[in-house]
Amino acid sequence: MKLTILGGGGFRVPLVYGALLGDHAEGRVTRVTLFDLDEGRLSAIARVLAEQGAGVPDAPVVTATTDLDEALRGADFVFSAIRVGGLDGRAADERIALAEGVLGQETVGAGGIAYGLRTVPVAVRIARRIAELAPDAWVINFTNPAGLVTEAMSRILGDRVIGICDSPVGLGRRVARILGADPDEAWIDYVGLNHLGWLRGLRIDGRDELPRLLADEEALNSFEEGRLFGPEWLRSLGAIPNEYLHYFYFNREAVQAYRSAERTRGAYLRDQQAGFYQEMGKPDTPALAAWQRTLADREATYMAANREAAGIGERDEEDLESGGYEKVALALMRAVARDERATLILNVRNGTTLAALDADAVIEVPCLVDANGAHPLSVSPLPYHAVGLVTAVKAVEREVLAAAESGSRATAVKAFALHPLVDSVTVARRLVEGYTAEHAGLSYLRH
To answer: Which residues of 363-377 are buried (b: 16+ CB within 10 A; e: fewer)?
Structure first.
């Protein structure tokens, strides 16, 4: 079975390959093709993978190419993990937004809109090539903003594209651990959009244990989201929000923390990864060890500005374990390729799951996965405050898709202006001016 990874020179690719090395069952991935436009990054990551697979008898064979069509032909699964504009683009997105006093995070607020406007046209072109060259392939989208990009690709590929994110999985595992449950056995009631969802229940043997957690002050203060939002606010919500909702619920504090930081997250990662890839340019560099050191630092500094805004200090060791997006991807592939039924939180088309949204809207909910793909499971309605956020952000996503399709500058302005975290049409206009001047990838916004 062939897996193609678009963005194959990306830093997190070894996580995926590491998961594949642990899969020895029949029907496993035997060939991995890395596609990237940057030959230097491709070479660096290929070296890391070679060291990972050394001594593993049935390690998938790795090839690398800068030819998209070559990468896609014969693919059974395609992972899309591209970054249009690179980390330089992300750093610019953050800087331009913060100069206007609004959030520039890569998936939330002005930064997420700018990144989406750059990425959607490229993702759509890739989806068209997949439909032509590998129509039977399943596409698993990692590319941020994951929900928006998955919805753009689904207009061409339908339900054969599925978006994944490790954030809700990591949240569910942390809550299950605090409640003394096996995360793999607990039922997680989670619903929303990508990076905009709520854990509303966690059932163990049919009993919802979340009320027990919400009533326990000490337990709430023992994990990342509990400390980030605070017990009082969590009890008011009656749910545990995805960590990215900190940007909404504590927006002023988050913006201030980002503006006060020595570097934004994007600038930090740009500099950190530049150092890694530069080090990998030396032929005698131990590739895997260099990658592991960089990864450990990356994970420890995740959402540092938000923790500073909340006054909660460094991440606890227990919180460093993410949901493992590579493990989610492997479970998804197994379920589809082998018809091994699994329940996973994924980004899929809504159908009739959430009444507030139309059928084609991509949402993030628990899904039953089998050989026919991912099927969203029924969920109870969202409370009005959550409906308001979900529908407002989905409206913004639709304007981004419309602007990407039409090239309309006015529609791009509308996308920024409608976002809950951009509080001024005038600011929206200045953001579009700033981003189009900065990014060649937005030159299509002409009229």
So the answer is: bbbbbebeeebbebe
Phi, psi of 106 (to 5 degrees): -65, -20
* Token duo for residue 437: 């001047």
Q: Residue 145 has what pLDDT?
A: 97
Give 385's contacts (C-beta < 8 A, 6+ positions apart). Answer: none
Cβ atoms of 196 and 166 within 8 Å: the answer is: no
Chain Cα centroid distance, residue 334 = 20
Amino acid at 403: A
Q: Maximum distance among all alpha carbons in the chain?
A: 60
3-class SS at 181? coil
Cα separation, 362 vs 374, in Å, equals 12
Q: How confident is the model at residue 303 (pLDDT cuts 50, 70, 90)?
A: low
Classify strands 187-193 and 196-204 as parallel, antiparallel or unpaired: antiparallel
Share the mean pLDDT of the chain.
93
Q: Are 190 and 175 in contact (CB under 8 A)?
A: no
User: Cα-flanking dihedrals φ and ψ of residue 10, to 5°?
Assistant: -70, 155
Spatial CA neighbour of 91 closest among 120, 63, 70, 111: 111
The tokens describing 79, both together, are: 């992972």
